[in-house]
Amino acid sequence: MGPAPAAGIAVRPGESASLRFEAARRDYTAALALAERTGARLAWIPRRAGERGGVEAGALPTLLPGARPVEDPKARTDVATVWGVSSVPDEPGRCVTQMLRAAADGTLSGLVVGGVEVTDLPEPELARQALDRVFVVSLEIRQSEVTEAADVVLPVAPPHERGGTFWNWEGRERPFGQALTTYALPEHRVINMLAQQMGTELGTGTLAEIHAEIEQFDPWDGERIVAPEVEAGSPVSVNAGEALLASWRMLLDAGRCQDGEEYLAATAKRAIARMSPATAQAAGVQVGEQVRISTDHGSVVLPVVLTDMPDHVVWVPTNSAGELTTLGVTAGAVVRVAKEVSA
Predict the structure, then answer these.
(1) pLDDT(45) > 80
(2) Residues 61-96: tens digit of each pLDDT
(3) pLDDT at 141 (0 to 100)
(4) What is the pLDDT of residue 3?
(5) Using an 8 Å Cβ cutoff, are 141 and 156 in contact?
(6) Of 186, 249, 255, 305, whose CB has the highest number of CB atoms within 10 Å?
(7) How far does Cα 255 stand from its chain's mean position?
(8) Tell me: the pLDDT tens digits for 151-186?
(9) Is the pLDDT at 308 greater than 60, yes or no?
């Protein structure tokens, strides 16, 4: 038996722990080990409202709808029965990074991209290579880097012009109705029509059809996927003039949901770099001075704010001014830090 549950304590990984495919496996292995060692509960808090719903619908490569493991014969039988097919493949699918790699190397010849920015992805440069290589269909409500690269752009209805349901991070359903009546088509209808043109019936033509299918799936009572055990690897080595990058998103930043809201966007906090006094001293910078944070991909220059935090770490906002996109890395990477000398 493991330790007794730690009352009121939970380990809650967020967006940063799931950005990179290989690193995510290590991060979640460590989070699971911590929860088992302390008796704490483990919960995942995704960034976007639809991500938990995607998991429930079977969007992860190793899962079928309702968190059914794709490798479990009973799970596949359940799904085949609901879908009205003879069998369901037992091979896991591809994660986003694997899809992009397959598109970039020519294994895949096309991509359907819906509501995703290139800079949302763990490897933006890989995404750009993939979009340039294959036939791209974009489902969008606004112009983006994806629509610029797309061969076909299909405008879809924003949330207030359609109905639907969000699953929050706790697994609670949050349905919402259509607020405005327009002729714009929701994604589920567009995808259904595309599938029909390709000779496949998805059964997502209406919300009623989608809800009816979901209701056919009883809660999964079989075996769960065994958590992978991934080696933690060697400790990160930080040399002189370097620091470990930490980051998270501010409530107001350069996010696309502020398009057209210039006054709201103007209330966002300024972008800064946070570091401990020892880290700042090693970099030769003081409060209010500028520090250049750089990688082989690019660099950003930000004012320094001293903070009570671990040494050899520098924190920058994820997207207040495109910081991580410019650096070409995600949280956990080693970056160079140095005082910015004015010309």
Answers:
(1) yes
(2) 999 999 899 999 999 999 999 999 999 999 999 989
(3) 92
(4) 59
(5) yes
(6) 186
(7) 14
(8) 999 999 998 999 999 888 888 889 999 999 998 999
(9) yes
The one-letter amino acid at 324: L
CB 25 within 8 A of CB 19: no
Who contacts 199 (Cβ-Cβ below 8 Å, separation ≥6)?
none
Residue 152 near residue 193 (C-beta atoms within 8 A):
no
Q: Going by C-beta distance under 8 Å and a sequence separation of 6 or more, which residues neighbour residue 190?
A: 139, 154, 156
Radius of gyration, CA atoms only, the chain: 23
At 15-34, the pLDDT tens digits run 777 666 566 777 778 888 88
Question: Hey, which bits of the chain come out as E strands?
Answer: 10-11, 41-42, 63-64, 68-69, 110-114, 135-140, 152-155, 164-167, 173-176, 242-248, 273-275, 290-294, 299-306, 313-317, 334-339
Q: Rounded to whole angstroms, how far apart are CA atoms 75 and 158?
A: 34
Burial 311-331, CB ≥16 within 10 A → b, else e: ebbbbbbbbbebbbbbbebbb
- Between β-strands 164-167 and 173-176, what pairing exists: parallel, antiparallel or unpaired? antiparallel
Which amino acid appears at position 202 of this protein?
Answer: L
CA distance 14 to 6: 20
